[in-house]
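hey so u asked for the seq, here:
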Amino acid sequence: RNQDAWDTVRDHSRRSMAMAMRTHLAVAGVHGRSSERSGWGCNRRTGSEPGRMGQSRRSVHRSSRKHLRVPILVAAIFGSLAAATSVEKGSEWYKQNAELFLEIESAEQYQQAIEETEKDTVLVVDFYASWCFACQNFYPHLCEAAKLAKENQRKAVFLKVNVDANRKLAKEQGVLALPLVQIWRAGRGKVTQFNPSPKKKSTFFNNLELIFSNQPSTIFDLKPWGALEVAKDQTQPQPDAGDLQAKKDKKKQEADEMAEKMKALRERLSMVADQGKGASTVPSRPLSAVKQEFLANYPDYGYKGKIDKLYKDEIGSRMGETEHYMDYTGSSLYCNSQLKLAFEDLASHVFGNPHSENPSSSLASERIEEAREMILSFFDASPSDYQVVFTKSATDALKIVGETFPWSADSEFRYLRENHNSVLGIRQYAVKNNATFRSMLEPQVESWLESNVGKEPDVMGPVGPYKLFAFPAEDNFAGVKYPLDWVKKIKSLPTSDGGSTRWYVLLDAAAYAPTQPLSLRKVPADFVSMSFYKMFGFPTGLGALLIRNDAVDILQKVFWGGGSVALATADDDFHVLKCKPTEALEDGTVAFLDIAVLKYGFQMIEKLGGINSIQKHVEALTRYMYTRLHGLHHSNGLPLVVIYGKHHLVNHAEVQGGVFNFNVLRKTGTAVSYLDVQRKSAKQGIHLRTGAECNPGAAYGYLGIDTKEIEDLAGKKEGCHDDIDYLIVQRPLDSNSLTCGAAEDPSFSDEDPALLTSKEVIPAIDKSKLELGHAAEVAMHWVKVPLGSVRVSLGYMSTFEDVDALVTFLEDTYMDT
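ran it, structure tokens below
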């Protein structure tokens, strides 16, 4: 539309290229792919120091070339050849060019700016955080836009909102990812909002120009790739300032309702006067015919008829009559009698810092050693073979392994793809030390081990490089159990150079240990991580790392502090770690009060008959629940849910734990948003988990989402609890697997094509015989793919009523009858 501007820009293009290169490298290229730090959806890719983020020099140059055209677009859009506004990187980058912005300091000031600015003025609101690297990279573009708008006398006001200083406002405005740009027309309402990419400067400027160059009443559509276009339907009602007040009133009402619920909860808890004697507010009810049939078919359920009374006494007094807890993989529930005994113990004894020798300290030390013995006994581990190191959590236990493992350039870190995020994080230590890493599927591990059958390691040969393999005994996503005989097989693998065995095994038992026995005499893993709140709910903030004694010596501890050191000097580089491995690896004072009351959690397990009784109880409920869920169908015969894992196998008890991960399906076969299930189930009092459950390998593997497609969400998606529940991608037109037919988005229908993995996309394009246009344009279209699922997990206090309530909820809410 501005040919003169384009002609002028073409004459200046060579000078612009040099400036663009410098600007891009200063703003984005140094940090590679944008996004650095987590929180509000602004992610930081961990790794080496800034400028060495795992990208090659070539990738930085290629990215730079892509941005050379940006200044040209900027000039054409705003009719000016003004140079990019200078923004120096530093700790207070967000304070630079302050004269271009109105800094919002309160929700009232924000509301006033929206409502009282001259009508039809364009308000550009930037939500940012000082620690957000994506915000920092985007800020020069924002400054340049504000400066050019001012120079060209645009009717615009640019506002900035620091989300840390305005947390309530950010929450009210639905800020889930940073940076977030809102665009308003004063007196008319919000035009749009989007998360701008620092790498897509031209898209941001084009969006602004489109708004400036159209009538104030124009309605726009936001495309999946972040670009605006004029909506074909201009009859949609435009939000006005009154909508803001209505939303504000609604949020206040919701907050008041939540406060009332919390007050009622506190009152209910205060009514529980004597937890140990079994006082309960839950009335008894006669057995239904369905439950009687269940009890007859599943005799291992309920600890020989004790579960109903146990639940009332230990859990029911804290739960509403219609509430059902089904997130045991997230956290187990503590029992009333467990808490009573723990607090009576703390109230009748004095425990001191175990690093001293006085009576209170000695008592604490005795309890700590008593707890170590209980843990070793629970895992059937000999004290001569294993050490128990107390940690802050299972994640902290994994972190210790990553920090202290003797990585080298010849080391290798292999891990099952279905590991928890905390295991995946170990690879950063491997990468930092130039070691290699490899993600493996279960069949790949089996093939790897099969190829080495019959080969014996030379235990007397030279010491080879240290290598580590990590896998979960049971994954936390779908509850699949993996072969524990891998441990011995991997530990006996020969090295490629004929040296002695140097493969060590890390077993993540956090999801497995709460409901199943694990014998470390039979499964001699070198490192085992676990968490106590996942076993019996209390205490939280306490985990353990079990280490084989013969693996202790290879660990290379760097940091030392508190009680881990026997001797140290302040003037010289001298220190001597304590000889006892547990003391050498436990920096500082352990959580001795929490450790002292662990015994009451283990006593609760024994009260139920031990871990084997818990296993039988959970297995009975698991089988019953699978039968119920598998039998749910719509009126047209299509299933109501698609269940992930190995529940369907004949040997399900050996390969599947008490976890159900599934997506709810419509009668068309498309997936219901997992957030919809989360919200509606919560209203019914059902406690469950949704999202990717901190297990990207398993989640995206089951959902068929490619790694690159997930990486493109960096800086937009914060985690399982945000509102981004689907991925908009291109899929072949004739595909018929799973997608998220999004009822909340009128541009997508229930007849959306289904999910294909990215590996199927290119072949689909190649098969296209159409000669008109590009094959991708005619063979593909945009679909919404679910980014997560629903997880229901059973535990030692799960009941028949829990399962029945969940199935009834799914039938009543989603089944087409």
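Residues 241-270 form the longest helix (30 residues). Confidence is low (pLDDT under 50) at residues 1-84, 272-284, 741-762, 767-772.
lmk if thats what u needed
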